[in-house]
Amino acid sequence: MVFNTKTPHSVPTFLVDGAVAGTWRYEGRRIEVKPFEPLPKAVHEEVENEARRLAEFHGPILPADASPLGG
Q1: Structural domain for 25, as ranges
Q2: Which long-range contacts (CB under 8 A, 24 or more apart) does 30-39 make?
Q3: CB 69 within 8 A of CB 22
Q4: What 8-state DSSP symbol labels residue 14?
Q5: pLDDT tens digits, the chain, 71 residues: what are they?
Q6: Interacting residues of 23 by C-beta distance below 8 A, sequence separation 6+
Q7: Does 71 fall in a domain?
Q8: Which of 24, 28, 35, 66 sits at a 20 to 30 Å CA gap from 59?
């Protein structure tokens, strides 16, 4: 989590190789991911797999052919 110093709210973040690489949020049965920079294909696939697991945790899963990544 990254904390905004102007408000007490935190921002959900994801890591790539131990560094904060972007933000995410759960919206409409999807995980909306906003990387700070373009992700290499292999990393994007890993983030998508993790987003799918996180979306399943939050609620009903999406059809198998739908990407869990929103945005």
Answers
A1: 2-66
A2: 30/55, 30/62, 30/68, 30/69, 30/70, 31/55, 31/68, 31/69, 31/70, 32/69, 32/70, 32/71, 33/69, 33/70, 33/71, 34/71
A3: no
A4: E
A5: 556 566 667 788 999 999 999 998 888 778 888 999 999 999 999 998 998 888 888 776 555 545 555 55
A6: 2, 11, 12, 13, 14, 33, 34
A7: no
A8: 35
**Residues found in the chain:** 71
Measured distance CA(27)–CA(40) in Å, rounded: 24
- The first and second tokens of residue 17, run together, are 């190789």
If one counts the domains in the chain, the total is 1
Tokens of residue 13, six digits: 């973040």
Are 55 and 31 within 8 A, CB to CB? yes
